[in-house]
Amino acid sequence: MREYEIKRGATLEERVVDLKKEVEGYFGPIDGTENREGQELYVVKNPVNPIFKKVSIGAGKYPGKKDTLIVDFEECPIAEIIADGNIELAADAVTVKNKFLLKATGKDSKARRKAMKREDSKRN
């Protein structure tokens, strides 16, 4: 599970007015919700792209902290993807994931990586 901060000067609600609708548009029909660490996440158990085994996405709300987007992408192992010849589906999965995260957070993959590295260095 990962948490992504929203671009400075914006909130998740401003960037994505209807999170449920966006999740369905990118990943497929929502099967329900689950609670993780006190946060409610939408769950897609049968995503449109078969590279994803399960997708869980929700808004992280913490008192006194900036909004975050919580995501958990459960994916097929890379060896299985290669053995099944699904390289193109894997590339599509990465594209969909990046487009969704850009829309929701306002940050491209390079900015998200830099933010994750900063967070990791703070923890160590």
Which characteristics define this entry?
5 helices; alpha+beta; about 120 residues; globular
Q: How would you describe this structure to a colleague?
A:
The chain is of the alpha+beta class and 124 residues long. It has one domain (2-123). It has 5 helices and 5 strands. The chain has helices at 12-15, 19-27, 78-83, 87-105, 109-123, and strands at 2-5, 32-36, 39-44, 52-60, 68-75. It has a 5-stranded antiparallel sheet. Strand 2 and strand 3 (39-44) form a beta hairpin. The chain is globular, with a radius of gyration of 15 Å.
Give a quick rundown of the structure:
The protein has 5 helices and 5 strands.
Note the total helix count.
5
| Percentage of β-strand residues | 25-35%
Biggest beta sheet summary? 5 strands, antiparallel
Task: For the largest sheet, list the strands in their spatial order.
Answer: 1-5-4-3-2
**Sequence of secondary-structure elements:** EHHEEEEHHH
Rg is 15 Å
- The SS-based structural class is alpha+beta
How much helix, percentage-wise, in residues? 40-55%
Return residue spans where pLDDT drops below 50 for at least 5 consecutive residues: none
Q: Give the N-terminus to C-terminus distance in angstroms.
A: 19 Å
- The overall average pLDDT, rounded, is 91
- Shape descriptor reads globular
Total strand segments: 5
The count of domains is: 1
Oligomerization category of the chains in this entry: single chain
